[in-house]
Amino acid sequence: MIKHAISNLNGWLAILAIVLSSSAGDVLLSRGMKQIGDLGELRRRRGLGFVLLQVVRNRHFLIGVVCMAVSFYSLLFGLSWNEVSLIGPAAASLTFVANAFAARIFLHEHVDRRRWAAALCVAAGVVLMAF
Amino acid sequence: MNSRKYLVLAGVSVFAPLGDSLLSYGMKQVGNISLKNFPDLLLAITNPWVGLGIVFLCGFFASYMIALSWADLTYVLPASSLGYVLLALIARFALHERISLMRWLGIALVSAGVGFVTSGPERTSGAPRQFANDDVAAEPS
Q1: Best exposed site among A89, A110, B13, B60 by fewest CB in 10 Å?
Q2: Containing domain of residue B79, as a range?
Q3: In this structure, is residue B137 part of a structural domain?
Q4: A43 and B CB contact within 8 Å
């Protein structure tokens, strides 16, 4: 009983850590990539080495990768305590919604009704697919 | 959107669920890890399934970075969620698993979400681009 409760608590703590770190990472990576510009176009004009150099020297990218690493290890931690059918959908669906808020606030993206509907449909769909 | 961009979104869609599934399989072999023996979590990557999962996730990461360089975050995330649908369809038609009604409903909702977002523009934010022209000096942020 207590072991089950600890397992559940650790699972939900992992989900919270995944959502927060993953959303922060997504926003930072998105900002970093927007600063550099279309990577495919840039590779054609200046070569792959130039693109890789710009990516690994971008501050937002580097901090974003650290956030993603935290998210990754939180996922491993969560998977070691609870079922992937809980951790995966719960973390993914909450991250979709958190990202929509974060993108609007920090990236100034125009999140219109169409995009809200898309984020909510995908979030709900991911949860239902776990059943 | 051209075919190259659709291919990038397909890469994001396919690599992520495959990588996650391999990680899940590997972590079941590794077993429970508590906060007391936290360093064991770092050693988990030596498990071959976890390692292979990481290779797939690297493929996902590269595709994801390329997609984020020309599209909004709120466009890329829903548009690339077709991977969940793909996994369910593989489970149904290749592995002959039974898909519940709730799961079919989930597939329909995810597909509707993808349809909503891909029918709109891929970019709405006006973030600065450092290398919009060839003559711009190559300065990182």
Answers
A1: A110
A2: 3-118
A3: no
A4: no
Question: Could you read off the pLDDT tens digit of each residue along chain B, which spans 141 residues?
Answer: 678 888 898 899 888 878 877 887 788 787 777 767 777 777 788 889 989 989 998 999 899 999 999 999 988 988 888 887 877 777 777 767 788 888 889 888 988 888 888 888 888 866 555 555 444 444 444
Q: Do B107 and A29 touch (CB under 8 A)?
A: no
> Model-level pTM?
0.78
Number of domains comprising chain A: 1
Distance CA(B87)–CA(B103), nearest Å, equals 12
Residue B141 belongs to a domain: no
ipTM for this model: 0.83
Out of A55, A80, A122, whose CB is closest to B78? A122
* Chain A interface disruption, residue of B2, B29, B77, most A CBs within 10 A: B77
- Domain limits at A55? 2-128
Please identify which residue in the block is written with the tokens 């279309």.
A38
* Chain B contact present for A117, CB below 8 A: yes
